[in-house]
Amino acid sequence: MNKNIVILGTQWGDEGKGKVVDCLTKDSSYVVRYQGGHNAGHTLVVNDKKIILHLIPSGLLHKNVIGIIANGVVVSPFELIKEIKMLETHNIFVHKRLFISNSSPLILQYHIEMDIAREKKLGISALGTTGRGIGPAYEDKIARRALRIGDLKNEKTLSIRLEKIVNYYNHQLVSFYKHKPVDYKIILRDLLPTIDLIYDMIKDTTSILHTAIQSNKKIIFEGAQGSFLDIDHGTYPYVTSSNSTIGGVITGTGVGSKSLDYILGVTKAYSTRVGYGPFPTELFDDVDKHFSKKGHEFGSTTGRKRRTGWLDAVALCRSVRINSLSGLCITKLDVLDGLHEIKICTAYKNINTLEIISFPDIDEWKNIEPIYETYPGWNKKTLGIKKLIDLPYEARNYINRIEEITQIPVDIISTGPDRSDIIFVRDIFFIKK
Ligand code: IMP
């Protein structure tokens, strides 16, 4: 039996992981966020109500589940409290069942100002970040100057270190970026009242997870962003600042690879990307309009229009290998309903040399062109279908082709935004390894 399941994105984020996590956590004891911060946006529809979570693990909507924000996550205490209060308005209370690692780096105002100032200075070369301070917060961690959640427990040293860091940031913000400075006293004034609210949640989450594993509890590891936004394996520099591929689970929680039983790669039935950077299958035609409108392809964190394109199986196969995926979950299949034909990119060609490129390096991206296989679309509705057998023949064909190309099974198919719009092809908790 598979107890510990990782759910991660195989594309550029926004694959629909939140809903899948929500569905699978129903049968689990723990749900764990291991990387990223409130740059993520996980949208869930429960009883026709839309709930968007950025930082709190999506699975916490189930009342018996314990949520962990592990050490790999960068945490804004303000965002955390905002989300806790938002959940309370939906009668979801997280008291005594949400724990935050004492080692998680904090995101504070100076990170956000630095993120914004940098993007502004980069002008047309900007990365298109979410402006949430994610990059600067991870830089502080690597530079070993970060304030971490555990530091909130000692007000005196917190204020001394905060003042030093603010001086360091203000020097760059003002002298180099010609940006407004931040005020250390205001940051401290706003931060102090948050401490009481989260004090009891601060724990050694690694130990909690080790105990849970020893007690045979089921754990869902909830990824944020997608594999090609990974700082090491993504389309650098157009990436986020964390490891959104499988390695992030291990470093971001303190749980070793032997304890991970099944790795589910969540893949949208087509592709989207927010922000700038390579996107070989990008479309600018009526199909783009179809995906945007029918798929509501607007960022849940920033509201930006997502770029859209056909499914990129070259990237997907790379993702299968990077993450050692056990199986796939195809989401938003219903968005393809009504398209006359459907394409899958199965290779990249260099437009100058006409060579087939296995995976482009940084300078090669601009010279590649996707090679497509084309399949007939379907005119029937797949929205809300719950059994594989009920899908139109052409839709099953499309799924089969994805399995053939990637050489791994499609175990779950999401056919709409609601929790219940889902096909479980196999029960992944019971698949033999
Ligand atoms: P950052 O994570 O805010 O630094 O943004 C870096 C890049 O990652 C930008 O292109 C963002 O649009 C993208 N990004 C960050 N988080 C998400 C996400 O949750 N979904 C999709 N794209 C994201």
Describe this structure in words.
Strand 5, helix 2 (about 75-90) and strand 6 form a beta-alpha-beta unit. The chain is α/β, with parallel strands linked by helices. Helix 3 (about 110-120) crosses helix 4. The chain has a ten-stranded mixed sheet, with helices on both faces. The model has no long low-confidence stretch (mean pLDDT about 95). About 30% of the residues lie in helices and about 20% in strands. It is built from eleven helices and 18 strands. Bound molecules: inosinic acid. Inosinic acid binds next to helix 4 and strand 8.
Topology at a glance:
Layout: E1 4-9, H1 17-25, E2 30-33, E3 42-46, E4 49-53, E5 66-69, H2 77-89, E6 98-101, H3 109-122, H4 134-142, H5 155-176, H6 184-198, E7 202-203, H7 205-214, E8 219-226, H8 247-253, E9 262-268, E10 271-273, H9 286-294, E11 307-309, E12 311-312, H10 313-322, E13 327-331, E14 341-350, E15 356-357, E16 368-376, H11 393-406, E17 410-414, E18 422-424
Parallel strand pairs: 1-8, 1-9, 2-5, 2-8, 5-6, 6-7, 9-13, 12-14, 13-17
Antiparallel strand pairs: 3-4, 10-11, 14-15, 14-16, 17-18
The structure holds inosinic acid.
Cofactor: Mg(2+)
Family: Belongs to the adenylosuccinate synthetase family.
Function: Plays an important role in the de novo pathway of purine nucleotide biosynthesis. Catalyzes the first committed step in the biosynthesis of AMP from IMP.
